[in-house]
Amino acid sequence: MELEINGQAAYAYNGGKPFDASLPCVVFIHGAQNDHSVWLLQSRWFAHHGFSVLALDLPGHGRSAGKPLPSIEDLADWVELLMERVGAGATAKNVSLVGHSMGSLAALECASRHPARIARIALIGTAVPMQVSDALLGAANEDEPKAIAMINNWSHSPRSAIGGYVVPGIWHFGAAKRLMERQKPGVLHNDLAACNAYQHGMEAATSLTCPALIVSGGRDMMTNPKVSAKLATAIKDARRVSLDGAGHTLAEQPDALLDALRNFIA
Questions:
Q1: pTM (two decimals)
Q2: CB-hemisphere CA count at 13 Å for 123?
């Protein structure tokens, strides 16, 4: 689906089905230096099981035009504008927000700022605060290939390094590298800086009026599961799922992640 938001072209993948604003909607929000393609399995399942789907390309990412937005607050308001543009949740509180990493912060902030549309949120690979090391921020600004290599190494569990993939024939390291490499120059540093600067997370969590699901990888080196556990205690209605042995990336245990989302949303 191609849209126009604030005078800029925006893209959302619909999972292979036309968007229908009368159906309950699931909005998928990707992480730093990613795009809608990380949600292909999950978005297609929901689209073919009674939901409308919006797997977004955030501004400056993937097929969406413009510059990347500089703050999590800006991302949250942009997501709300997109939902308003297509009529998602306009007549009922029936939108589920699903965000990974940076996208989880955008989902949290959006649900806090614009609760009228949101029925529930799922936060995957999340942490509040989501601190980014000076070494990674510096590499993203001065040597992007080095930063991509750092993220790739930290985002995968040790099991992945020896070919322990659920889906045979897929090289997750290579696929993740190419996904990050095809984003526009400067996007990575912008995204990491936005995550690092976001200070409103715990306040947003305590103000939530909808249920939340927090999904953590047991071997996540980017967003420590212990930090996400503290976030869960701040949310009135939160449940947690741990994907044992998984790292930060979505691709290591796709079926287990889909099961968690299905049980929570569907």
A1: 0.96
A2: 32
Q: In which band, very low, low, confident or very high, does the pLDDT at 173 lie, cut at 50, 70 and 90?
A: confident
Residues with Cβ within 8 Å of residue 28, at least 6 apart in sequence: 36, 39, 42, 43, 53, 54, 55, 56, 98, 99, 103
The CATH number that applies at residue 134 is: 3.40.50.1820
pLDDT given for residue 168 in this prediction: 66
206 in Cβ contact with 111 (< 8 Å)? no
What are the angstrom distances between the C-alpha of 60 and each of 56, 79, 135, 260?
Answer: 11, 14, 24, 30
Q: Which domain holds residue 129?
A: 2-265
Residue 175's contacts (CB-CB under 8 Å, 6 or more residues apart) are 251
Q: Total structural domains in the chain?
A: 1
Residues 252, 156: contact at Cβ < 8 Å?
Answer: yes
